[in-house]
Amino acid sequence: MRRFLDGLYEASGWAAGAGMVAILVVTLLQIAGGLTDFYVRGTDAYAGYAMAASSFFALASTLRRGEHIRVTLILQRFEGRVRRLFEFWCLGAANVVTAFFAWYAWDMVYWSWEFESRSDSMDASLLWIPQTAMAAGITILFVAFVDEFADVVRGRDPAKNDLSAELQHTE
Hints:
Low-confidence stretches: 162-169
Structural class: mainly alpha
Number of domains: 1
Helix content: over 70%
Shape: elongated
Number of strands: 0
Strand content: under 5%
Number of helices: 6
Distance between the termini: 26 Å
Mean pLDDT: 89
């Protein structure tokens, strides 16, 4: 299971990178189109879709690598049992929030698909397509938060999980 989850987070990070490359390609297409008076409809929207996909796919990977912004300003003031309880509370709240977000993201995808909702921009893309990337990214983040919570239950410090320790060892 550990290997599968780490692979999922790694794949999510690579998908985020692919989104960044897509933004670059679309931007270069816009620049080339401006130089040659050739306009490709919807490039602004496609860049936005790629940015959203990249952002959401990066969330789980950065969380599991210990690179998310954490509440260390508050956490460092606690020690022992109080810190552990605060970690439980924070990760429990994060699980609840991301579960709701994932649920409603997939609900939005479903209704966009059901009603064949289209973008208002010139591309008129079916909205369920870019929304699926957002919903998948937030769902993987939910899985990562459950994984972090399990780490705390097992007594591990979530700020020093296996991936972040592995990265620090290789640098």
